[in-house]
Design goal:
alpha+beta; Pdz3 Domain; 2 domains; two-stranded antiparallel sheet
């Protein structure tokens, strides 16, 4: 059951991403040759109008294959024969649809369980926070200029900036206070500690607050994904920690197992949270300036805008093909990585 749920979540995210490309392509009069869910051989499909709709064997991934997308075409409805702004709108639609899905799911999640206020539950004796005068009940407004809307943002900021001096703005009894804290390394826990912690209690939200904090939730996951990539590039995170579809399915399955005993509601909430995380992550990853990804295509289109001249479609297609091959090599590495971590 857990694997079915995991594949269902993954498929919905990919389908909605490709739906963004599909709808904007149709809106701009671009011929879509095939719209598919999954990869590999076709299991089932039908043709309506000029488009074939199909389900593929492998449930990971999907495609919106447009005429003239990776080569030259004389068809007036071909992707490369449309205006540069029409093409840009089609390319960015996929990631934007992922962010929209993450936002909608986030609003539902906040309505269901509320949100974690960035409020200090207690301070640890003889640690920097207490020495700086912070107390239980203080609400953290910002850290080093970054606004805090959830307590989890406070935690993640500390994780992504270990040992960094913190300029903290907090509120107590309606008054703003400022302090500077130097986190202290805790030998027992093996990490830097500020010296306070949250309660984990969720604050209930009305619909207006749910919309507001739903947007903050998407912003949080986008920021977390970007910070994770930064650590990966700078060596703060090992390549061995990279996870692909197999690892994602396992994580979803483990989350399902952990929440199943608490009841259907908690399974729903945790699966919804996983979908938000993955949808925001998928949106960010696809905007990376890597050939074959939406971000790579966007780079070529922005260059075209600047130089006011089309780049040779055949040359661009070759670059994307090479990028795709490199991505396939990376996927093989990630697959072995997932299998090794599972075993």
């Amino acid at each position: 059951m857990k694997f079915i749920i995991a594949i269902f979540i993954f498929s919905i995210l990919v389908l909605f991403h490709e739906l963004g490309h599909f709808l904007l392509a149709k809106k701009n009069g671009i011929r879509v040759n095939e719209f598919s869910l999954g990869l590999g051989p076709t299991l089932a499909g039908f043709t309506r109008g000029e488009t074939k709709y199909s389900i593929k064997l492998l449930p990971f991934g999907g495609a919106c294959m447009m005429e003239g997308e990776d080569g030259d075409s004389t068809d007036e409805k071909a992707f490369n024969n449309k205006s540069v702004w029409a093409r840009i709108s089609v390319v960015v639609a996929g990631p934007i649809f992922n962010f929209i899905m993450a936002f909608v799911f986030s609003v539902i999640l906040v309505l269901c369980i509320g949100y974690d206020k960035p409020q200090v539950y207690d301070v640890i004796e003889d640690y920097p926070a207490q020495e700086a005068g912070m107390q239980a009940g203080d609400t953290i407004l910002s850290m080093n200029g970054k606004k805090m809307h959830f307590y989890r943002e406070v935690t993640m900021y500390s994780i992504f900036h270990p040992g960094k001096e913190l300029d903290i703005v907090y509120e107590r009894d309606g008054e703003r206070h400022e302090t500077t804290i130097q986190p202290r390394f805790d030998e027992e826990q093996g990490r830097y500690l500020i010296g306070f912690y949250g309660s984990g209690v969720q604050k209930k939200a009305n619909f207006v607050e749910a919309v507001q904090y739903g947007a903050y939730t998407v912003k949080y996951w986008i920021s977390t994904t970007i910070d994770s990539l930064r650590l990966l590039v700078t060596g703060g995170v090992s390549m061995k920690e990279l996870s692909g579809p197999v690892g994602i399915v396992k994580t979803i399955g483990d989350t399902y197992d952990a929440s199943r005993e608490d009841g259907v509601f908690y399974v729903f909430v945790n699966m919804l949270n996983m979908a938000i995380l993955l949808s925001a992550n998928l949106g960010v990853m696809n905007l990376l300036p890597i050939p074959a990804l939406d971000g790579g295509r966007l780079v070529f289109l922005l260059v075209e805008v600047i130089r006011r001249k089309k780049i040779d479609p055949e040359k661009e297609g070759m670059v994307h093909f090479v990028g795709l091959m490199l991505l396939m090599v990376l996927m093989v590495f990630v697959l072995f990585n997932d299998i090794r971590n599972i075993l």
